[in-house]
Specification:
By secondary structure, the protein is of the alpha/beta class. Strand 6 and strand 7 form a beta hairpin.
Length: 269
């Protein structure tokens, strides 16, 4: 049972890792080798899109292919919804010219930053959960590259697909300040969150009292609020003697009770 629990824990941990940190799948004698493609080709895009003329492609799903590069995507200049999730892509590339792109899925890749993003004036949804983006600074390019961005996912609601940047202090507030046009972050509607916060403040201060917040962090209690600890933690000898006396009285009372029970049983017989 303990071995099974350990195996389950290892499998669960591996599922949360970005694909680039997982070992390449090795085929067994009884199974065929998985079909992977390191780069996008004309033939692959035609196969996955069902279009011979690649300029007519509006929706393209090339997920789960083991891709290690985005090179070649420029041959679909009119693509609007692009799914490159669950590959092994380490960086963005070849995206210049995709001016009609509105939805981009890049979940579960190996992306560390967003250099090479290009300019996408129509992009409204960007999904990046399960990558290795580690700093707020890496997101700064989105402010100019995606001026119409309304939804950004760096983590999913379950918390399984997230980036290291999600653990940084004040992450949520920093992203909202960087991208004020966002309406949804990590699956949470920002408008509703703000309304709930304002409602909670009104409930706490119904008379319209203001919150007098300090400009910097302050200790909970002023200096000298708590009494100083005693110099010695040893109990005085007088108190120890009283405690010993109480224990002795308790032992004597227990002995008398046992004797009374035994006498009552003997009288009943």
């Amino acid at each position: 049972q303990s071995t099974w629990g350990l195996e389950s824990h290892v499998v669960s941990s591996l599922r949360r890792l970005p694909p680039c940190l997982l070992p390449e799948p090795q085929p067994t004698p009884s199974m065929a080798a998985p079909v992977t493609h390191e780069t996008l080709t004309d033939a692959l895009i035609k196969l996955r899109s069902g279009h011979y003329d690649l300029e007519t492609v509006r929706t393209l799903n090339v997920s789960h292919l083991g891709l290690k590069s985005m090179d070649g995507i420029r041959i679909c200049p009119n693509v609007e919804t692009l799914d490159l999730s669950r590959n092994r892509i380490p960086r963005l590339s070849d995206m210049a010219g995709l001016t009609r792109l509105t939805v981009l899925h890049l979940e579960s890749n190996c992306i560390e930053d967003l250099r090479g993003m290009g300019t996408h004036p129509a992009l409204t949804e960007l999904y990046l959960g399960g990558n290795v983006i580690s700093s707020i600074e890496s997101l700064r390019v989105l402010a100019t590259a995606c001026p119409a961005l309304q939804r950004l996912d760096l983590a999913d609601l379950s918390g399984k697909l997230k980036n290291p940047v999600c653990e940084t202090p004040a992450y949520f507030q920093s992203v909202v300040a960087l991208l004020p046009g966002l309406k949804t972050l990590d699956g949470q509607r920002l408008k509703y969150a703000a309304v709930y916060k304002a409602s909670a403040i009104r409930d706490l201060f119904p008379e319209g009292e203001g919150l007098d917040l300090p400009s910097s962090a302050q200790p909970w209690c002023p200096a000298g609020f708590w009494p100083p600890p005693p110099e010695s933690t040893a109990l005085p000898e007088l108190e120890l003697g009283s405690i010993r006396g109480l224990f002795s009285e308790a032992d004597a009372a227990e002995l008398r009770l046992r004797q009374a029970i035994a006498a009552s049983r003997s009288a009943g017989q």
